[in-house]
Amino acid sequence: MITFTVETRHHAEFVNIDAPLRQVLRETGLENGLLHLHVPHTTAGITINENADPDVQHDILLALEKAVPWRSPEYRHDEGNSAAHVKASMMGAGLTLIIREGRPQLGTWQSVFFCEFDGPRHRNVWALPLPETTP
Predict the structure, then answer these.
(1) Count of the separate structural domains present in the chain
(2) Which of 31, 63, 82, 105 could join 75 via S-S bond, C-beta 3.0 to 4.6 A?
(3) Are 10 and 115 in contact (CB under 8 A)?
(4) Looking at residues 11-24, what average pLDDT do you find?
């Protein structure tokens, strides 16, 4: 397993992590197989979405904020970041990428994004390469 860091600068943001993923693939030499990614934080997540238009990331963050407002008098969690926990659960803590010829198999406009909901912070992503095996 390899760990890489993500530095977030805003309270809520999507950070494109394609470059560190390519570095992980180079370091591990994974040519064909799967790369499993896990975010070990309860107020952050990970997703695949469009990389061409930054308005898409803005719109997702806006929709999440409308669905789960940052502040609510009904929240009980003492740390004041209940919404971040809910949004992280909605996005998910992990994903698995198919790797072929040393590259993630993503659609034309797709990238992998770290999803911050309680920043700015110093975060980690765990990457587990799973080489393809033949029976």
Answers:
(1) 1
(2) 82
(3) no
(4) 98
